[in-house]
Write a structure and sequence with these properties.
Elements: H1 13-50, E1 55-57, H2 61-66, E2 74-76
Parallel strand pairs: 1-2
Protein name: Rhodanese domain-containing protein
InterPro entries: Rhodanese-like_dom_sf (IPR036873)
Organism: Ooceraea biroi
Length: 103
């Protein structure tokens, strides 16, 4: 057996609109809270992902010094220095001498 209930109310249009506004406000607050929570989680994930990379800027040193990325895992090896067959150990002086650069 299927039961259907029909509720009859004596709500005015203003009351119905007020309920709609309250529901819209609650929906917006929930979306903001979800976005904030999601963003915090994504920021942590992005931070973990970024820490796994070494950024090699291949612009000329003058351009690099003028507008370099402020990230401790960003180094400058000008494109003119990169040649086929040149081994990575030749660029050791380009790396920062701190432990974090070699992690």
């Amino acid at each position: 057996m299927i039961f259907k209930f029909i509720y009859s109310t004596n709500m005015t249009v203003d009351q119905i609109n007020e309920v709609k506004n309250i529901l819209a406000d609650l929906r917006q607050k929930l979306e903001i809270r979800y976005e904030h929570s999601s963003r915090k989680h994504n920021d942590a994930v992005e931070k973990m992902e970024v820490d796994r990379y070494l950024i090699i800027d291949v612009r000329q040193k003058a351009h690099y010094d003028g507008s370099k990325i402020t990230f401790d895992k960003c180094i400058n090896i000008p494109q003119s220095e990169l040649k086929p067959g040149k081994l990575g150990y030749k660029f050791a002086d380009c790396f920062h001498k701190d432990k974090q650069s070699f992690d």
